[in-house]
Amino acid sequence: MSTTVSTPDATPAITGKPLAGKVAFIHGGSRGIGAATARRLARDGATVAIGYAASAIAAEALVEDIKAGGGNAIALKADATDAAALTRAIDGVADRFGRLDILVNSAGVLALAPLDQFTLEDFDRTVAVNIRSVFVATQAAARHMKEGGRIINIGSTNAQRMPFAGGAPYAMSKSALVGLVKGLARDLGPRGITVNNVAPGPVDTDMNPEAGDFAVVMHGLMAIPRHGKADEIAGMVAYLVGPEAAFVTGADLLIDGGFAA
Q1: What is the domain class of 23-255 according to CATH?
Q2: 215: which residues sit within 8 A by CB, 6+ positions away?
């Protein structure tokens, strides 16, 4: 007597718009990796809500750019340090569009200083933005997500390797996301929602420009001696939120040019 084991439905057919009909909230989406991700997900067919803290002009300009390319986007203020405001913003997006399928936690801060000069204010802000806001946003978004939901955190290769002094709190904050994503994957997996980290290495953004003071040192530590491009990170995010990645969860995926190799 044979036994039939049920398996999930086959991977949906991939079209030119694999995210058509999906709604995404990009937390920290007005600049850098967040902005590149917003453009990519909109290009793939998602309606994109761009959350920003202070960069209203950049966020609105990004919305217009996406609309000019045939996409659909809105911008709304969502300060990462204000849990109530961030939750209201996510709830508002779900109410406005009737659904929420994707959350990308891209908001982040980087403070560097020698141990004896690192202020408690900077430490607390690092924790509030890089860790606490990720939990708050995930908790809010998960209430609206159905099976097939996707949550992506932008982590860092520095969770694996911090090769210079002054970056301990930043490395700690990104290491915390590794543990958080593994636990959240267990919490949300039974509901068919995946949770993953994308962990970039040096990426040419305002936070870490390729012409910055640390570039030469960082390139010397890498297998591919250059900064990454924000679009390359967005490509990894697009894969994880797409139909082909339904079996990927609890992962911390390096995209760092071999920085941590």
Answers
A1: alpha beta
A2: 202, 209, 227
